[in-house]
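Lab notebook, design round three. We kept the backbone fixed and only want residue identities now. Task for the bench partner: fill in a sequence for the structure below.
Input structure tokens:
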């Protein structure tokens, strides 16, 4: 039986999606905020969905593309977290914790994308 290496990125992005769902419920039920909450819900859960899709990518290029979409969604999620914090919808503690998580996802995604681009085309210089 083949043992499969644990996908840390998938595990962390799924945990983050769960936090986003809970944040969305809090914003809707407690703060009665319906516009930004939908935006962060969409982008924050999309990170892990695209990581999950990447597991069955058809090629290295497809894999990199899915991770690149996840990275864009993570950046958007960071934007909405900042907006919610600056608008006093979330406190410093919640903001700092969630921002740490999204920053970690961004670092992992950037590293993974760089690695895959080097594998796909070693002549590419990535900064």
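Proposed sequence:
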């Amino acid at each position: 039986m083949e043992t499969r290496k644990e996908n840390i990125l998938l595990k962390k992005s799924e945990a983050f999606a769960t936090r986003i769902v809970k944040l969305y419920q809090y914003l809707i039920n407690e703060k009665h905020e319906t516009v930004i909450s939908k935006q962060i819900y969409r982008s924050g859960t999309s990170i892990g969905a695209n990581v999950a899709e990447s597991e069955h990518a058809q090629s290295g290029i497809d894999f990199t593309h899915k991770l690149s979409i996840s990275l864009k969604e993570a950046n958007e999620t960071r934007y909405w977290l900042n907006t919610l914090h600056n608008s006093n919808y979330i406190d410093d503690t919640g903001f700092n914790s969630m921002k740490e998580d999204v920053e970690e996802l961004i670092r992992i995604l950037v590293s993974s994308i760089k690695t895959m681009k080097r594998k796909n085309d070693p002549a590419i210089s990535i900064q």
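Keep this in mind before ordering anything: Residues 64 and 115 are 9 Å apart (CA to CA).
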